[in-house]
Amino acid sequence: xxxxxxxxxxxxxxxxxxxxxxxxxxxxxxxxxxxxxxxxxxxxxxxxxxxxxxxxxxxxxxxxxxxxxxxxxxxxxxxxxxxxxxxxxxxxxxxxxxxxxxxxxxxxxxxxxxxxxxxxxxxxxxxxxxxxxxxxxxxxxxxxxxxxxxxxxxxxxxxxxxxxxxxxxxxxxxxxxxxxxxxxxxxxxxxxxxxxxxxxxxxxxxxxxxxxxxxxxxxxxxxxxxxxxxxxxxxxxxxxxxxxxxxxxxxxxxxxxxxxxxxxxxxxxxxxxxxxxxxxxxxxxxxxxxxxxxxxxxxxxxxxxxxxxxxxxxxxxxxxxxxxxxxxxxxxxxxxxxxxxxxxxxxxxxxxxxxxxxxxxxxxxxxxxxxxxxxxxxxxxxxxxxxxxxxxxxxxxxxxxxxxxxxxxxxxxxxxxxxxxxxxxxxxxxxxxxxxxxxxxxxxxxxxxxxxxxxxxxxxxxxxxxxxxxxxxxxxxxxxxxxxxxxxxxxxxxxxxxxxxxxxxxxxxxxxxxxxxxxxxxxxxxxxxxxxxxxxxxxxxxxxxxxxxxxxxxxxxxxxxxxxxxxxxxxxxxxxxxxxxxxxxxxxxxxxxxxxxxxxxxxxxxxxxxxxxxxxxxxxxxxxxxxxxxxxxxxx
Length: 636
Hints:
Blueprint: E1 2-4, E2 9-14, H1 20-24, H2 35-42, E3 55-60, E4 73-75, H3 89-107, H4 114-129, E5 131-137, H5 138-143, E6 167-173, H6 185-195, H7 200-209, H8 237-252, H9 257-277, E7 310-312, H10 314-335, H11 341-360, E8 369-370, E9 375-376, E10 378-381, E11 387-390, E12 404-407, H12 409-414, H13 416-428, H14 430-436, E13 448-451, H15 455-465, E14 472-473, E15 476-477, H16 483-486, E16 489-493, E17 496-500, H17 524-541, E18 546-548, E19 556-558, H18 559-571, H19 589-592, E20 606-607, E21 614-615, H20 621-624, H21 626-631
Antiparallel strand pairs: 1-4, 2-3, 5-6, 7-10, 8-9, 10-11, 12-13, 14-15, 16-17, 18-19, 20-21
Helix pairs in contact: 6-7, 6-8, 7-8, 8-9, 8-10, 9-10, 10-11, 11-13, 11-14, 13-14, 17-18
């Protein structure tokens, strides 16, 4: 590389190796990976080399007058090139910027607002920027580097020791390669769907990546994240695969059935893992660790319950219902060319019905629907056999809304084996059929509805979700109902005490040792799934199904209108307000006041439930890039 600068340039080199001298008091020569920092901050000249290494930085000292500025230009060169010209540097830089603008302009046909175009372009550009080579070989990590001191023996029985097959060496979309430079399986699902707007081939490759033998566990589990590959993330990959397939087909005009087939075969193993490992009682009620959206609940669900027993989760069970529906839909698509997939589709339809039955058995000691409150609650199953509902009004109770699939009439007509088995099951088990759909009543365009919720229960959840005194914020759907601001949920049982209060931003508690930093802020990806579900329901109901929006206002709107208005609320976090400021950037007044940087937006991990301010990691373009999907005009 060469730098164009009037000041002299010094190249600083170090090795990408852990500083065992600092951490373990082992007298090993460096320089280590923190060498550049130690040279600059601590003036340690021995911390770097000046000629070679696996990490490097250009050290340029610049003196600026008050309010002055300086530009440093950097250019790569071939190794055998002695000199590099910077004469055409500005011209090439301008050309590349114009090419990028032209690319996004083509994508953004139909988006008339310039600020919205800016937000979408920056979200996608940041998503592309967050691709990174990721290398992790668990077996080598357990054995240790032969050139370094051996790792502690406890490592072989510690975290990830059961993932010795895992050997990752690929370009992967990171949640945030600055603050979270590692992949997370359910983040990657949302990232892939956003990527499909600009690079569907890469999006497909990312979904397939986690299903490779070097990633997926032999038992069928997908790796969660590096600090605990065996944790349970929400199973979003069937949904992500189907959405990417649809977006790729719309963009290219070609249905990539080979992609869907590869995904389905591996997800069959993963679905089996969920059924066999995360359904403790074989009752189609699911548990699992990190399904609680970073534990916005009473318990740390990644650890054994302090009360003993297990927790039947409304969200975990609803995620599985959604999983079954998307596996069914993928199978139906493949069945158009291969009749054998009609059997697979039938299997997932039946499994969906059994999950719906389990969630709905109110009054039988195992259901998650509370008739009194017209709401879903988790059920704490104690060792004594007692079952108690946890009456927390949180976002996880709204997850059942996402389990919805509308089937077009041509799909049913073209697959007679599936249709016959569907009708047999619905006729012979009308008790189950009533739970998920009035199958004999076709919707708009003779569509058929499969959903965990319909009619009364859906309206009951939407009444709370669209209530500004509960979940509905100016900027989207809160993670915890604002009802708990003045009415905290208190849990007391055999010496265990905890409470859940609504906090719009950072949490002030950890509860039972779990990470509980979300107590009310807005999650972009879950909001996106809820909005998408409302659009899907509208495909069936059309404008004849109306709900009050906001609750208590008296204004009745279609589900399509509600979904559109919710999208606009979420987008408001990142678009300029009437005061000329961006809500997301409220914590950075110095950036908003700088004309050169005020439109360089940050995409946060989550958003303040009342003000829309960015909270958490400030470069979480991963799942927050779903704002680009919300801004994209919907076909039809």
